[in-house]
Specification:
Elements: E1 3-6, E2 9-12, E3 28-30, E4 36-38, E5 46-51, H1 58-71, E6 77-83, H2 87-97, E7 102-106, H3 112-116, E8 133-137, E9 143-148, H4 158-163
Parallel strand pairs: 5-6, 6-7
Antiparallel strand pairs: 1-2, 3-4, 5-8, 8-9
Length: 165
């Protein structure tokens, strides 16, 4: 269990992030068209997993915009924005913002991604949502970078995440 903060107040997560150098846990998430996608579907691509509580908050929206801006210049890399928002909300947000370089995926139906990756908030008013995390995977699904943002309201270290590619 990791301890982070929400507005300066301590909050625990459900576990620990996958360690750098380890194989990323398999996942199944819901795309905007309600189809299911898994980690195996991205084999051969580098992945930036931009994980956050909800696209309807300022910091979360900022991270999607920032990674969308960077994604167009990344070779053989896909940016996956993952939350427990409904796929409809994710699609609405990206459509309204004109964001086309990231792929939104939802963990709304089971929450298993947040639990498997150790990043689900286990207490606070946001319990059950994801904490703010960036994980970078290589083409073989190995973890190259993992950042648990210490304060949920803060943005991740974009430069460090992108440099790990």
């Amino acid at each position: 269990m990791a301890t982070i903060t929400l507005g300066g107040n301590p909050v625990k997560t459900s576990g620990e992030l996958p360690k750098v150098g380890s194989k990323a846990p398999e996942f199944k998430l819901v795309k905007n068209d309600l189809s299911i996608v898994s980690l195996a579907d991205y084999a051969g691509n580098k992945l930036v997993l931009n994980i956050f509580p909800s696209v309807d908050t300022g910091t979360c929206a900022a991270s999607v915009r920032k990674f969308n801006e960077s994604a167009s210049t990344l070779e053989n890399t896909k940016v996956l924005c993952i939350s427990r928002d409904l796929p409809f909300a994710q699609k609405r947000f990206c459509g309204a913002e004109g964001l086309e370089n990231v792929e939104n995926l939802s963990d709304f139906n089971t929450g298993s991604f947040g639990k498997e990756y150790g990043l689900e908030l286990s207490e606070s008013v946001l319990a059950g949502l994801h904490s703010r995390v960036v994980i970078v995977l290589d083409e073989n699904g190995m973890v190259k970078y993992a950042e648990q943002v210490p304060e949920i309201a803060d943005e991740p270290n974009y430069n460090a995440a992108l440099a790990s590619l």
